[in-house]
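A favour between colleagues. Tell me how you read the following sequence-structure pair.

===
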Amino acid sequence: MNPPLDDPPPSDASKAGAPAPLRAVIDTQLLLDWLVFDEPASAAWVQALSASRLRWLASPWMQQECERTLRRSMLQRWSPDPQRVAQAWSRWAEMLPEPSPQPRLRCRDPDDQAFIDLALACRADVLLTRDRDLLVLRKRAAALGLWIGRPDQHPTLQPGTPP
């Protein structure tokens, strides 16, 4: 059974007195930067993920969207490895049920709406993105308790940030 969206499961880090990990929704562009393009800019947030300082929250739709994107002809010159991507999803993504649509914030791009809806429904701390259609929602999302931005803009996800 999946945990209720409004009630985050307790983390092992918070039990040990360490700060709770950031609860993050991560958009497809950033996942491709990490898993296909091996972008150095991904290193800090991926390190936070592997050190349990970041929890990746996702939905089945997001996983399907990532898989669809991998099949696009424009990505084939990078030879994406579907097995690597599937392993990352299996290992790191905390799958949550699809949320009901959230009328609080509307994104111009209907494909990006799922990211904002899940982030608000599960009370994520951050929505990591470099997508302009999501970034324009930054101020309105902040009023709802959600930080939206690029990982390198977040104070605890910058390179060299201690655990």
